[in-house]
Amino acid sequence: MYAIVETETTGLKGEDNKITEICILIHDGERVIKKFTSLVNPEMSIKYRTSRRNGINNDKLHTAPKFYEIAKEVVELTNDCIFVSHHVNFNFNGIKNELASLGGVFKRKKISTLRISRKVIPGQQSYSLGAMCNFLGVNIGQGQNATDKAEATVGLLEKLWEKDKDGVFNFMLGPKPGQSAVPPLWPKLMVAALPNSTGVYYFKDAKGKIIYVGKAKDIKQRVLSHVYNNGHKERRLCFETTHIDYTHTGSELVALLLESDEIKKHLPKFNRAQKRIGYRYGVGADIDKNGITNLFYDRLGKIKSPLACFYNQGECRAFLEELCETYDLCPRFCNLQQITGACFHFHIKKCLGICREIESVESYNKRVGKALTPIEDDKNTFIIKAEGRNKNEKAVIVVENGIYKGFGYMSKRKRIKTFMDYDKLITPLADNNDIQKILRRYLRRSDGEDIFIDYVQDLPSLHACPKSVDRLTEK
Q1: Would you say residue 179 lies in a domain?
Q2: In a domain? residue 250
Q3: pLDDT tens column, 196-208
Q4: Residue among 408, 417, 398 nearest 462 (CA)
């Protein structure tokens, strides 16, 4: 059963917006079987502008019933019905707020003929009720009061039912108990074939273009989670998707790295994060005439040997501000405060006084060196070994001099004699700040998968050089 509902209101905002007219048409899927319509006294005056639009004035409303007098009938009529309206949230929330003011609760499954129109009949210049009724030949009457709009919505709904060949209406209603809803353009066999394994998945549109890339520990469950999400973005994504591909990675870390690389490569329209490509700014260090180590940021082309690279100036400043906060460095000598004399941090006792010549140059430079030590540590060369795609292989991720080189797979029985042999195993991929964040964050986790890290001190031969092996164990 469907309750097609339209209302007129006082035209105010929020809780002050009161219903002045309501029309409810109960439809059994074939025809209208019940009708309820009434003016409603909002217990306040309505503006002339609103009255001129819908023809409802204060004189007509003076003798009309107040909402609490018709509330029971509204609730009983719509009970066990799907709430249907062209602007469904406006009409639904109007009734919900009225009942809430009386201490009641109003919950109904709802659907918008405007949203269905966009999916069933794409490409229209306007999806207003009047425009859609004119396009489909539905009589809308004068279209000024709730009754005219409700009857027009019924006609529009029936036309949309006739044109809906892909199951859009049923999908937007959501799954019935014991069933799972699948978007109309998704082949059921394709969904059934998705694996319950770790990897990267790709949503493609009708032209084969990748419109979304995601990573998952369980590809099938993560893909279906998009279907169950009622957000506007997720709905659009599901409706535009006609095919889903996936790549099984085995390791979650490999999946994260591959996802980031694929997003930058394809720039999918529904991905927001990690779309930035290439560094533009960096942080450098130099020594001024007084022997003080100065940290600064600028475009990469102007820094001979950048200590760290970033996408924009804001990230550079945030990085330097964190160093100042953690190691009590002076903002004046970190390119954060363009002043002479004492910096602001000195006045709040967060700078030890290098800017006032209170602290010695040696002491300050030593602290700067300590701040830069973790950055230098990131320049290590190492190989990460993680779970492979099957029990007979393992994934290898290569980082050389702090630069991510790529990942690949090798047999567990294969013996690697030199570091250079790993070049033959990996797929070369680009390094960037997002990749570095993934590596740092994942290697510091205590709840990740079992991984091994081989730190390499002599590039020509892994076998000949001493090495340390750190193991991060799943808890």
Answers
A1: no
A2: yes
A3: 999 999 999 989 9
A4: 417
